């Protein structure tokens, strides 16, 4: 149990580092980013080494990103800020999950809840990927910001991947919940 607790502590640090890095990169790109073909990037030069942070919309949001770019809208702010939300939720639930593991809670309602929420977040991401470009287009049209922005509805491999992984994580959480219930019932019988 000590090994699980120690490893969970290190994983929590890693999750915090990655979440902070992603949030910092997003802020840097929104405030100082240079437009590229598919998104925005910022290059940070530290003398001995440099780093390239970029946000690209090259999968299911590529078409809406290109259409927004043609209309001179900030694609990173419009699309990137919404795409960041599921990542932050995933980091949050992973952080909670590994906090439970660090405390020695393995098969508890807290860990099962965290796993279910991870699965739900990925499943919700599918809906977000499909619906958000349509919402953006309708908003732009109804507010008069754009009359020519096309309505784009995509469903591709990214959405299938999130659907599969989210469904598997949710089913694993459900199986763990059923296992906990069976264990509790067996303890009552004996």
Pick out its properties.
single chain; 190 residues; mainly alpha; 3-stranded antiparallel β-sheet; 3 strands; 71% helix; 8% strand
The profile of the biggest β sheet is: 3 strands, antiparallel
Give me the strand/helix succession. Answer: HEEEHHHH
Instruction: Tell me what portion of residues adopts beta-strand conformation.
Output: 5-15%
* Overall geometric form: flat
User: Reading side by side through the largest sheet, how are the strands ordered?
Assistant: 1-2-3
Mean pLDDT: 87
Topology, element by element:
Elements: H1 2-32, E1 34-35, E2 39-45, E3 50-56, H2 62-70, H3 75-102, H4 109-142, H5 157-189
Antiparallel strand pairs: 1-2, 2-3
Helix pairs in contact: 1-3, 3-4, 4-5
Q: How would you explain this protein's 3D organization?
A:
With 190 residues, the chain is mainly alpha-helical. 71% of the residues lie in helices and 8% in strands. It contains 5 helices and 3 strands; from the N terminus they run H-E-E-E-H-H-H-H. It has a 3-stranded antiparallel sheet with strand order 1-2-3, with helices on one face. A hairpin with a 4-residue loop joins strand 2 and strand 3. Helix 3 packs antiparallel against helix 4. The longest helix is centred in the middle third of the chain and has 34 residues, at 109-142. The model has no long low-confidence stretch (mean pLDDT 87).
Please give a quick description of this structure.
The protein is mainly α. The chain is built from 5 helices and 3 strands, in the order αβββαααα. The protein has a 3-stranded antiparallel sheet with strand order 1-2-3, with helices on one face.
